[in-house]
Write a structure and sequence with these properties.
This protein has about 260 residues and is α+β, with helices and mostly antiparallel strands. About 30% of the residues lie in helices and about 10% in strands. It has a 3-stranded antiparallel β-sheet with strand order 2-1-8. Strands 5-6-7 form a 3-stranded mixed β-sheet, with no helix packed on it. Strands 3-4 form a two-stranded antiparallel ribbon. The longest helix is centred in the middle third of the chain and has 16 residues. About 45% of the residues are buried.
Length: about 260
């Protein structure tokens, strides 16, 4: 799945899955970053909380939004390059400091807000999520999961022989996916509402993240960023300070 990374959230299975200790670059000061920049149920994160927390994968990459590089040759600013142990070699970024992951998410939201020659601007939560976690993908971007097969144009897909016993990860005709599908595949319709939780708007409304000059609407974008981090880290929330730092690094909404 290209960021371009959640059963119950944006990335609980995609980016929350634990990974082998030997895969992690121990020179990344992820614990101090987490204790400084994350909270759990309104309280500062401690070593004890981290030791007991299930969804550490992206936290240990200082990547609180589970951002992936768009290509091996196009790493995000502030990253250590492609993470060698990402599931399926998906290329999640390992950031030197966690504020750069917030910056990457602001830049990604900017890209979707602006649109591009081959894609209309995506300004509602549903439009953003349908790009970020497309219907075609399985949770974890594996070829198949729990009886459903991945149908994206790039990345792993089932073999022709395997399809006989699989349903397809794709947008239902009704636009509303079943619980069985959502346990195996991305379900943007279920995720989008969480993206705007606390904003008082629907998943199909313009989130108004940037003004006409490309300046971030901080009150709105902070809510969206906090909701994304909570989904990607298993309920942890970013501090206001790291949100401000990441937004400042991102600058105005212009090309990366």
């Amino acid at each position: 799945m290209k960021i371009s990374s959640i059963v119950a959230a944006f990335g609980f299975l995609l980016c929350g899955t634990s990974f082998a200790q030997e895969c992690f670059k121990e020179d990344i000061s992820w614990r101090s970053e987490a204790k400084t920049h994350l909270t759990k149920e309104g309280l500062p994160v401690t070593d004890e909380i981290l030791d007991q927390h299930e969804y550490l994968r992206c936290i240990r990459m200082n990547n609180y939004v589970c951002m992936m590089h768009s290509s091996p040759n196009d790493p995000w600013n502030g990253s250590e390059g492609r993470h060698e142990c990402a599931i399926g070699d998906n290329g999640h970024a390992v950031f030197v400091e966690a504020k750069w992951s917030i910056r990457s998410m602001v830049r990604d939201l900017c890209s979707k807000h602006r649109g591009r020659p081959d894609r209309e601007p995506a300004r509602s939560a549903l439009a953003v999520v349908e790009i970020r976690t497309p219907w075609c993908d399985t949770l974890g971007s594996v070829s198949s999961r729990l009886g459903y097969g991945r149908t994206c144009e790039s990345g792993p897909v089932p073999t022709e022989g395997e399809w006989a016993s699989l349903e397809r990860c794709e947008k239902p005709e009704t636009g509303t996916a079943s619980a069985e599908q959502c346990a195996a595949c991305n379900c943007p319709d279920k995720v989008a509402g969480r993206l705007v939780r606390g904003m008082g708007i629907s998943a199909t409304d313009d989130m108004e993240l940037f003004d006409d000059q490309g300046n971030p609407n901080k009150s709105n974008i902070k809510i969206v960023l906090s909701n994304i981090v909570a989904d990607e880290t298993g309920g942890m929330r970013p501090t206001d300070e790291i949100l401000d730092a990441g937004i400042e690094l991102a600058g105005t909404c212009s090309p990366r």
